[in-house]
Amino acid sequence: MHGLLMSLGFMPIFMIGFALTSLPRWLDQPQIEARSLRWAAVSMSLAWLGALVADVQGWREMAGLAIAVSGGTLSLLAGSLLIRCRWPGARSSFHARGISIGLVWIGLCQLGAAQALRTQQMDWLQTVQFLGLELGVGGVFVLALQRLTPFVHEQAWPRPGLLGGLLLCLLLRCALYSAERWAWSVPPFLHALAVFLLLAIAVGVWRDARDPALAVARRAPLVAQFYLGYLWLSLCMGLEAVAQWLLALGSIELAQGWRMASLHALTLGFMGTILLAMVSRVTALKWGRSLAVDRGLVVMQALLQLTTLARILASLPLEALAVGFREGSLRIAALSFASVALAWLSRYGPWLFAAKGR
């Protein structure tokens, strides 16, 4: 349930809201009224809350049905965006099509997770969850990153191909994870090839982030936060490369720890940092706040970076790290993440409630 909520739960709700209000503009199509989306936002939010309560009570079938409501709603909304991409007169937009397809994929994965939960197929549940996170949520984040920031630009190293390489690495991670989950035999040379590709993309992302041409842009407070998230993406690929190298050597248990560290560098580090920056900016600007990045947001981002670092340290299977240190790191991660959530709600929640009726 932790994996489901953190990967396919709250993030897709923000993503579909962002897509429904932004993609029509990218396509040069009529805007969608925000009021018309209330039923979808309420139904998806209540569905995940209901799934959590049902799971705590041990009502797995009810939890699965609740997630199916969210999956069906998300699939319909994302499908409508995909149709808009083909409307007569719609401006051609690779990013709009890619994000729409990614959201449809997330909705289908939610439906698959709902069925797996209802039938108690835990291996299938974890597989669908990972596929939805990597190909769906991860793919949408990478596409949005190129569209909305100066990073992953066409002039980056290698020229061109960094965007395609990132998407390929996400697909590769899914393929290797699925093979491991279902005990399919993977030759060691394929793991070694994955190490090479992952390291190449990790270096490419790092060089793109550190491009001297972006030095001025990185001084902007919002871009600086995107920059932090982008660096976590580079680290994610590097940690996954270590995991694949260990798998090539047959050290499966050690590889699991490095893979878990890579997963949290992707979710908490890359996705979490980008999400916190974007949702705070959208909230501030929509409600007339001229300063999107203030001291409060900077503190929240610092806490989130601490959360990510602590969670990664808790995952690493290093002999130098004692069991007590890992447990302490996990507690720090939990406390700091809860602090971020409560701080955000206390800071931005009053604006949202005060804006009722606008």
Key terms:
358 residues, mainly alpha, 12 helices, globular
Q: Can you describe what's shown?
A:
This protein is mostly helical and 358 residues long. The chain has a domain at 1-148. Helix content is 79%, strand content 0%. It has helices spanning 2-26, 38-56, 60-84, 94-118, 122-148, 162-181, 188-209, 215-218, 221-248, 252-286, 295-315, 323-354. α6 packs antiparallel against α7 (188-209) and α9 (221-248) runs antiparallel to α10. It is globular and about 55 Å long. The model has no long low-confidence stretch (mean pLDDT 88).
What does the secondary structure layout of this molecule look like, with pairings?
Elements: H1 2-26, H2 38-56, H3 60-84, H4 94-118, H5 122-148, H6 162-181, H7 188-209, H8 215-218, H9 221-248, H10 252-286, H11 295-315, H12 323-354
State the distance separating the first and last CA atoms.
35 Å
Helix content: over 70%
Shape: globular
* Helix count from the secondary structure assignment: 12
Number of strand elements:
0
Order of helices and strands: HHHHHHHHHHHH
- What are the low-pLDDT stretches, counting only 5+ consecutive residues below 50? none
**SS class:** mainly alpha
